[in-house]
Design goal:
Blueprint: H1 4-15, H2 23-27, H3 35-45, H4 48-53, H5 57-61, H6 77-80, H7 89-104, H8 115-126, H9 137-158, H10 161-191
């Protein structure tokens, strides 16, 4: 898929590789490593066509991918997005807040990373009909709705009712927030 939805979904997944949080949080290991994400980055780096089509050459050149996946250091937000990467401070702040939300969202009540939440949200983003000009819009919306219902049921089965409802609402809000952050990144890459 070479649509904006695919780019937005990929942006959401790639944000999971970004290390966020204060030094204290990192020392306490509140944000544990997500090995599947590191493995995904390694796999992408081995595919020159994908690296080129997504414009990842510079980003991947900053990573040391020679180590085992377990030893791979995840980049921090400020390493990927230096202080003045966008001239407008308000836009930079909005982007960073959204990336933080994206990274923090797929965690359960014990603050454990949940890869299934990421997978479901990625599918919801990929099948978001508002990001397309479609001939058969209704069909795509039905597919997305199925994944939304699966996510809602999964959260209800895994979390307490109040936490589940909040997590689901956050996911629905993240759809548009992720699109906006992706658009900011994309616009900046085009400007360079």
């Amino acid at each position: 898929m070479n649509s904006s939805s695919a780019g937005i979904a990929q942006f959401f997944r790639s944000c999971q590789a970004i290390r966020i949080g204060s030094d204290t949080e990192r020392r306490q290991d509140i944000f544990p490593k997500t090995y599947f994400t590191a493995q995904h980055v390694v796999n992408i780096s081995r595919d020159p066509k994908t690296v080129n089509s997504l414009g990842l050459e510079e980003l991947l050149s900053r990573l040391d991918l020679s180590k085992n996946v377990e030893e791979t250091r995840r980049p921090e937000y400020k390493e990927l997005y230096p202080e003045n990467w966008v001239a407008d401070a308000k836009i930079r702040e909005q982007h960073q807040e959204t990336v933080n939300k994206i990274v923090r969202w797929p965690r359960d009540e014990n603050n454990q990373f949940d890869p299934l939440m990421v997978a479901l949200m990625t599918l919801i983003l990929a099948f978001h009909a508002d990001f397309y000009t479609l001939v058969n819009r209704e069909r795509v919306e039905k597919v997305q709705l199925k994944y939304i219902i699966i996510l809602q049921r999964y959260l209800k089965s895994k979390l307490k009712p109040e936490t589940s409802n909040t997590k689901f609402l956050d996911a629905m809000l993240l759809i548009d927030q992720t699109r906006e952050a992706w658009q900011i990144s994309r616009n900046q890459m085009k400007a360079c």
